[in-house]
Structure formats: C-alpha cells, structure tokens
Amino acid sequence: MAGTTATSSALWRMESVRRHLLPASPPVLHQNPLGTMRLEPSPVIIGGMVLDIHAKPFMQPHPGTTVPGMVKYISGGVARNIAECIYKLETRPFMISVVGNDMAGDFLLKYWRSAGLCTDGILQADDVTTPIVSNVFDGSGELIAGVASDGAVENFLSPSWIYQFCHHISTAPLLMLDANLSPESLEAACEIAHESGVPVFFEPVSLVKSSRIAPIAKYITYTSPNEIELVAMANSLSPPEKYNFVNMEKFKNKAKAVECLFEMLSPAMFFLLEKGIKFLLVTLGSNGIFVCCKECTSLMKDQWKSEMMSFSTPLLEKLEQCFPSNMLVNLPREGSSRTYVFHLPAVSASVVSLTGAGDCLVGGVISALCGGLDMMQSVAVGIAIAKASVESEANIPDKFSVATIAGVA
Known about the structure:
One of its GO terms (cellular component) is cytoplasm. Keywords: Kinase, Metal-binding, Transferase. The structure is a single chain. The chain is an alpha/beta fold and 409 residues long. The chain has a domain at 40-152: UDP-N-acetylmuramoyl-L-alanine:D-glutamate ligase, CATH 3.40.1190. It is 37% helix and 17% strand. The protein has 14 helices and 13 strands. It has helices at residues 2-21, 78-88, 103-113, 151-156, 159-163, 166-170, 183-195, 227-236, 254-274, 300-303, 313-322, 357-370, 375-390, 402-408, and strands spanning 44-46, 50-57, 69-76, 94-100, 122-125, 132-137, 143-149, 175-178, 200-203, 222-223, 279-283, 289-294, 339-344. The strands form two sheets. The chain has a nine-stranded mixed β-sheet, with helices on both faces. It has a four-stranded mixed β-sheet with strand order 3-2-6-7. Helix 12 runs antiparallel to helix 13. Residues 33-39 and 297-306 have low confidence and may be disordered.
C-alpha cells in the first residue's frame, strides 16, 4: 500500500512538471467574420513556421540575473505570420513549410488545423527540430535581443519537397517566399513560378538572409525590405559593397526625415529596379514606406482581372468608398524609362508590440492584390493592417475591424 502511494505521488509530481514545461494549448485560429470563404486557387506561401517565445520584463533588465516579467508562447515565423494574416482577410493560403514531431511542432499544427487550413504542404518529421525564436523586449515593445534556432527550414525544406507542389505554385495568383529558405530552394520555387507566369513576392526576413535575393533577383516581382535589408540586397548584387545606410537621429520634421532617407536610399533602390525587380516596398518604420517601380504596368489590376480571388467583401466595399477614382495614382506603363518613387506615411499607433507588424503589412498587401486592388491601394491596406498589429500583443491580431482598416487605409 505504501509503495502504491509513493508511486502515485511520484507520478503526480512528474505530471505537474510536464504541465509546467509544456506550452499551453494554442488559441483556436478563427477566421475574422468579415464574409464567407470561397474555395479557389490559393496564394502559395513558402517559409518558416516558428514557435516564438516572447519575454517582456516589468523592469529594466540587468545583465547576469533575471527580472520579473511575462513570458508567452506565440505561433510565429515570417511566412506563417503572413499566411495567417492573409487567411484572416479571407484569402485562403496554401502553406509549404516544415516542423518537427515535437511539442513545438504539435503546438503550431494544432493552431493551423483549428482553422481548417490545409497542412498537406507542411512536412512534419521525427528528425526535424521545430524552429524556435526567443525574443526579449523592452517596455515599449522594441526588441532588445533574440536568438533564433531556425535551421530546419533551410535544411529540410528542400527543392524536392517543393517540387511536389508544382501544381499549387503554377496555378497560384502569387507565390510568397521568405529568405529562411536555402538558395537552392528559393531558386527551385522561383523557376516553377516563372514558367507559369506567377508573380513572386520575396520577404528578406533579416539583414543576413536578405542577400539570398542575389541569384533570384530576375524572378522577383515584389520585395519588402527595411532600410538595412535594402542596402544588403543591393550590395549582394554589386560586389564590392558600394551602398550604405546610416541611422539618423530622429527628425522632428517628418518631411525632412523622408527627404534625407530618399537621398540616402535612392541609389540602392534604383539599382535593384535595374536588376529586374518590379516593385520595391521599402519599409521605414515610423517614417512610412517608399513604393518604387520602373517600366511596369499596374499588374494586379489589369493582369489578374479575370482571376480575382476572394477578399473581405465588407472591407472591399468600404475601401471602394475610401478610394474614389480621382484619388488613384496611374502607375507607369510598360516601356516607360522613368523611375517612380511614392511615399506613403505611417499612421500613429499605440504601440504594444512591434513583432509581426512587417508581416501584417505584407499579408495585407498580398490579400488586397489578390482581391483586385492596385498597388497603391494594396499598400494602404497593408499599412492599416500593420497598425492593428503593433496595437496587439499577438503577432497577428485576433480580429480586424472593417471600419478601422478602411478608415486608416
């Protein structure tokens, strides 16, 4: 009897430890109630699914010791975040990624399946360790430090796995790639898309990985670097390095800040357009975004008119009211020798967390493009979605407000 009691006590303690170490069950992923989903060709998203560990101290961190704070497990990864954002705007994505047969992998897939999203393109294997990123933030939501264990995407998301989904890619309205992929996998995906005339959106992910655009620049229709990623991308195509970016002190005059940023970044922007990229969306943080293009058509509006995908119907109706025809910008036509750079300002926000804002920007742009909006309208939608993201603790807000997004856009 005593032995049975001791065994039960030991099992109870082990179960308590297990519950403490395991992340809580992920929240159910609900689509925003903005309309009814329709099945149709899906934008294909290839890249990382990551378990994010967010640590936010309640006081100034001290080296060599711990401080009280809040630690959360959140579904993350650039490609995964973008796919979730797209889904919540009623455009059903097809995700190609890799996770391990471990706690983190189960956490991510449970969240994904809760929405009824397809997992056919997500490889789950015993010999894979699910990518994990641990981030520490300050009180204002700015990243202090982080460590990423994301080698699985590069090592296991191989060209052979991607080739299995040739049909999905070749019939997609758009292919989005994040730079976590190996150069070989990036090239394989781009070649499949190129053969079928599918536009490619390249997400640089980080300063180090952004240079992976070099061998595939000729295939890229859209890319969304920040200032330092833009310079790294240009330098990867122009050895030895000749482009640079220097962080400036904050200007009280926003117009002056934008003017200085343009003078500093325009050589790199113009160079990348010369290398064949059709649209550059250069994110400038609180200073907004540069939209750069050369010798292009309005692409999505004209080229895909017969292939428009679903996009939140209530949101689209609101946006049509906010974007009267006399406010639209006519982009340059094929054969134009001029380079165009438009500046769209950021909008003020009550910052909670800045992680996920860039991914929401891209997700908003892709969804709007697939819904038939032109580039300028789509970027405006992306900026509005990014604002909703920075005002949320989650990478992707639980819900988007139709009225708020339309008003901000």
